Amino acid sequence: MSDDKRFSVGDIVSLNSGGHSMTVLSANKQSVSCVWSVRGDIKKGSFPAHALKETEADANQSLAALIKESMKLDESTKLQSLDRENAK
Q1: How far is CA 3 from CA 6, 8, 38, 59, 76, in A?
Q2: Into how many domains does the chain fold?
Q3: Is 5 contained in some domain?
Q4: What pTM, to 2 d.p., does this model score?
Q5: Strand arrangement, sheet containing 41-48
Q6: Which of 37, 43, 61, 84 could be a cystine partner for 21, CB 3.0 to 4.6 Å?
């Protein structure tokens, strides 16, 4: 890629300095919004395009995997709430 980096939704990227693989949610010429997972926690952030590079896809970091993990966490939270209510 040239200095004028262009990323597309679904691209797998990482910071030039290293770190987690992230999935691009949206991008323009200057800013890229990404999502990634850290120990099951879904994180989101925006980064300057020049601070990112395309990287190899990691099956554990794909958008589908992140969404699935998020749904499991939501379900787990709901079940924990129900258990607390039933314990009363």
Answers
A1: 9, 16, 29, 28, 44
A2: 1
A3: no
A4: 0.60
A5: 41-48, 31-38, 22-27, 12-15, 52-54
A6: 61
